[in-house]
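ingest -> validate -> predict -> emit
validate: passed (alphabet ok, no gaps, 133 aa)
predict: started
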Amino acid sequence: MILNEKAGDMMGADNQKQLERQETLEAIGKLNLLDDNLMTLVFDRNIEATELLLNVILQRSDLKVLEVVAQREYKNPMPGGRSITIDIYAKDGKDKVYDIEVQRASAGADVHRARFHSSMIDTKMLKAGQEFN
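emit:
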């Protein structure tokens, strides 16, 4: 009788684990990399994943990423000026900086926004007297 109860408890525990696993898999299935929180978790300091992403998007195979920071902030020094948060900041072996912005829809993916982001990055990268090349 004690053996039957223990066996039943073990089967119940196995069923519970299977149910939890199934619920977890269903929750994961609903996520995608366009979700800001998941994207941050996947790419922050993950050089290998960022390298793969950039090589696929840019149709390259030679890109080597040296640094990755998700949700990097650039504060505008002007009072009342607009600051930005970059989804993924990456730098490659040739010191080229990549600003990866994920948009779920066309709204908000304006050319002016892209130029503004680039200009904010440039103001942090360029040093006094540095040549523009």
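Residues 1-30 form one domain.
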